[in-house]
Amino acid sequence: MNDTRPARTFRLGIDIGGTFTDATLVNEESGAIRIAKVPTTPRDPSQGFLAAVRRILRQAEVAPADVGYLVHATTVATNAIIEGKTAPTGFITTNGFRDLLEIQRQIRPSLYDLQFEKPRPLVPRYRCFGVRERLDGRGNVLVPLDEETVRQVAEELRREGVESIAVCFLHAYLNPAHEQRAGAILREALPGAFLSLSAEVAPEFREYYRASTTVINAALQPVVSRYLESIEARLREDGVDAELLVLQSSGGVFTFAAARERPVFMVESGPAAGVVAATYLGTTLGYPDVISIDMGGTTAKAGLIQDGTPRVTKDYEVGAAARAGVGSGRGSGYPIRTPVVDLVEIGAGGGSIAWIDSGGGLRVGPRSAGADPGPACYGRGGEEPTITDANLVLGRLNAEYFLGGEIRLDVERARRAIQKKCADALRMDVVDVAHGMVEIANTAMVNALRLVSVQRGYDPRSFILVAFGGAGPVHANRLASELDIPTTLIPLSPGITSALGLLVTDLKHDYSTTVIQRVDQLDFARIEEAYRTMEAQGQAVLAREGVRSEEVAFVRQVEMRYVGQGYELAVPLPPTLLGPAEIESVLEQFHRAHDRAYGYSAPSEPAELVNLRLTAIGRIAKPALRRLKAEQRDVSVARKGSRPVYFAEAHGFVDCPIYDRYRLPPGGVVAGPAVVEEFDSTTVIHPGYHAQVDDFGNLLLRPTIPSPSGRGQGDWPYACR
């Protein structure tokens, strides 16, 4: 990146989670990494953000002016929608389509649920207006824009006190002239209001999806702008003059200025960071095919990376019971048509609360104790039993070394909470209930891992599992065992791996346009012109952000379907000119993708292009993993004691050796059962498994005895590939 400021030495990543806010500081010269965690402040996340920045800089003795750039992952956009705290917004559309946001779609998440209620529109009907104008399906003007009506609507919106306006005219993705003119009138009449035009935010067909995306962007603009401006001002007061970036839902980063303009692109900012980190670790270590599991304090998130590239979807809903992917609870939230890392997120985190349902069964989640008051064992007023309490009772967590001893856990409080809320009602022993809680959470996470792999047409046994988050390594061995995944990788400092992901991605801007053409009737010149136009847009934006031309790259994709289908699949395109030879290869890829997704393909059926997509990338230098020095391989130097730990396969408690991860030598092997502790997480190694330390300090968990599939033992003990 082009920067006239003095050279800076450090990069800082801040990830706000539901329970903790994580900070990672990387020294670009030495590769040294420092970490810090502070409790998240739900009422004002920026307080936890600033506390994390100040703590890590103080502990590392780094001057604020030495930070070159800071990357932030945040759920402020998602929370604003879920909590109904979006800005007062107006909606303007083509006359006759005023009820677009009310009608929504005919689908519902459960086919036979007659009581289902659609999510309430983000813009109430009295702030929705239709204006006289009309384009046909090819973008030709049928009815000119009635500019006087636009001015009248602007006056109505002024009286309603709106802060932001969304404009979505029919077929504007083909011809944006009417939207652009309406936007000019609105800016003149309401100079203080934010404005989102569908032709700029989501220039694709299907008017409801385009309108929903544009409305979400408009409703978030004031909220996100105030949040980012507040953080920026306070950072500058502290002397941090770094380049400020935000992680996007697609896994790239963009500047604070771009985030204020297009906040809909950062709706899934927080969860995407973990997948980015897993991608970086996998590709760096020679594992291009990865399944990631990020188990934090509130949720667990599963993602899939193939050939070093995370799966990205545009079928995503935010709010309510929103989920990514086709067929996963669709209809329960607000759809957005921007690239989002394909994740399955469930309410199974360390703070997930166990409870007894009306049928007398034990349940876990999705409600969480969060950061305030937290699990019962924190001693901060929480009385509900959580997964953290269960793991503590089972001996898997060290009451004296949670967060490096910063928080002391109370085992008796944890036992009492499980006894009072669950064990008494079930007439069971506390330990058995604690184990049941953990297994219920494990089952939920196994199902999530199957959703991102088996349901997408991938065999999880062909992937490596990368487990992180504060609670992920505690459960990872059991998850891998259930799915017969041969190797599990636990990175160093897994509790802050997501924050590391913020520092190993590039600047990205995504563009799209609809061009519906049959493959056998393609206008190659028109397609190339569309891509060139999008590339010019991306080049201009990256140039404004200080990226040199030699650091710019473009990735092309096309969305295809069989003629007559209602939904399409994304297929990568070559960076060169598209011609008859190239399109045949693209068509073959589409057939394979269709077979993987749906279990069949139809090569004899005609196919068509639907949407052209382009990602403009500004390359950012990434910190390298530090290779550790291997003086000897005896892990006994890292042993710090032992304690009883419960394992179902051992039928009870086992006197388990405890190891200090920071003292484990490269090449060393820890035989299970064992527990490996570090500042921000704990790795539990089950009987029948072992963990080998690779050259970079990662733990590689594998079965000591081969699994029935024959995949288990692999090439142990000869390190990783």
Walk me through the structure.
The protein is an alpha+beta fold. Among the domains are: 10-80 and 226-266, 2-Layer Sandwich (Nucleotidyltransferase, domain 5); 84-215, Dna Topoisomerase Vi A Subunit, Chain: A, domain 2 (3-Layer(aba) Sandwich); 352-438, no CATH class; 507-618, no CATH class. Helices cover 30% and strands 26% of the residues. It contains 16 helices and 35 strands. A hairpin with a 3-residue loop joins strand 1 (10-16) and strand 2. Helix 10 packs across helix 11 (411-426) and helix 10 (387-393) packs across helix 12. The chain is globular and about 80 Å long. The protein starts with 9 loop residues before the first strand and ends in an 18-residue tail after the last strand.
Average pLDDT reading: 89
User: Would you identify the regions where 5 or more consecutive residues have pLDDT less than 50?
Assistant: 1-6, 321-328, 708-721
Which CATH class of the domain at 84-215 applies here?
A: Alpha Beta
Residue share in β-strands: 25-35%
Radius of gyration: 26 Å
Question: What keywords describe this structure?
Answer:
721 residues; alpha+beta; Nucleotidyltransferase, domain 5; Dna Topoisomerase Vi A Subunit, Chain: A, domain 2; 9-stranded mixed sheet; disordered C terminus
Summarize this, please?
By secondary structure, the protein is α+β, with helices and mostly antiparallel strands. Among the domains are: 10-80 and 226-266, 2-Layer Sandwich (Nucleotidyltransferase, domain 5); 84-215, Dna Topoisomerase Vi A Subunit, Chain: A, domain 2 (3-Layer(aba) Sandwich), CATH 3.40.1360; 352-438, no CATH class; 507-618, no CATH class. It contains 16 helices and 35 strands.
